[in-house]
């Protein structure tokens, strides 16, 4: 299979998937960010709060 065929299928596959709502994407991103920061021994600031130093 050529790279071109794989890229074409990816574009077609995107049309078959349901829409990924922005609020769900934002919540998922926050979960990933929290887990990543926690794995390094830190924590993220509350929304709109000052960064932890």
Task: Give structural notes.
There is one protein chain. With 53 residues, the protein is mainly alpha-helical. Helices cover 60% and strands 0% of the residues. The protein has 2 helices and no strands. The protein has helices at 3-16, 22-39. The longest helix is centred in the middle third of the chain and has 18 residues, at 22-39. The chain is elongated. The relative contact order is 0.08.
Tally of contiguous helical segments = 2
Shape: elongated
Please state the average pLDDT score. 75
Could you give the count of β-strands? 0
**N-to-C CA distance:** 50 Å
Helix-and-strand structural type: mainly alpha
Radius of gyration equals: 18 Å
Main sheet properties = none
Q: What are the low-pLDDT stretches, counting only 5+ consecutive residues below 50?
A: none
Helical residues, percent: 55-70%
Beta content comes to under 5%
Query: Which H/E pattern describes the elements?
Result: HH
SSE blueprint and pairings:
Layout: H1 3-16, H2 22-39
Short description:
With 53 residues, the chain is mainly alpha-helical. It is 60% helix and 0% strand.
Entry keywords:
53 residues, mainly alpha, single chain
């Amino acid at each position: 299979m050529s790279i071109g065929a794989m890229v074409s299928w990816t574009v077609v596959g995107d049309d078959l998937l349901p829409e990924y709502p922005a609020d769900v994407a934002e919540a998922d991103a926050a979960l990933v960010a929290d887990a990543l920061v926690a794995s390094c021994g830190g924590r993220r600031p509350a929304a709109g709060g000052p960064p932890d130093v």
